[in-house]
Amino acid sequence: MQKNNIVINTETLFLEEENIDDFTENMISKETTISNKENQQEELEQIA
C-alpha cells in the first residue's frame, strides 16, 4: 500500500512539473510577442 502511494505522488509531481514547463513556455512566447509589438511600434515611429 505504501509503495503505491509513493508512485502516485511521483507521477503527480511529474505532471505538475510538465505543467510548469508549459506555463513557462507560454510566458516566454507572450514576452516575445510583446517585445515584437514594441519593436514594430518603434519602427513605425521611426518611419513617421
Oligomer: single chain
In DSSP terms, counting alpha (H) and pi (I) runs of 4 or more, how many helices? 1
For the terminal residues, how far apart are their CA atoms?
71 Å
Percentage of β-strand residues: under 5%
List the main descriptive attributes of the protein structure presented here.
17221_t:CDS:1; about 50 residues; rod-shaped
What would your notes on this structure say?
It comes from Cetraspora pellucida. This is 17221_t:CDS:1. The chain is mostly helical and 48 residues long. The chain has one domain (1-48). It has 1 helix and no strands. It has one helix at 2-47.
Please render the helix and strand layout as text:
Elements: H1 2-47
Protein name: 17221_t:CDS:1
Write a brief caption for the model.
It is built from one helix and no strands.
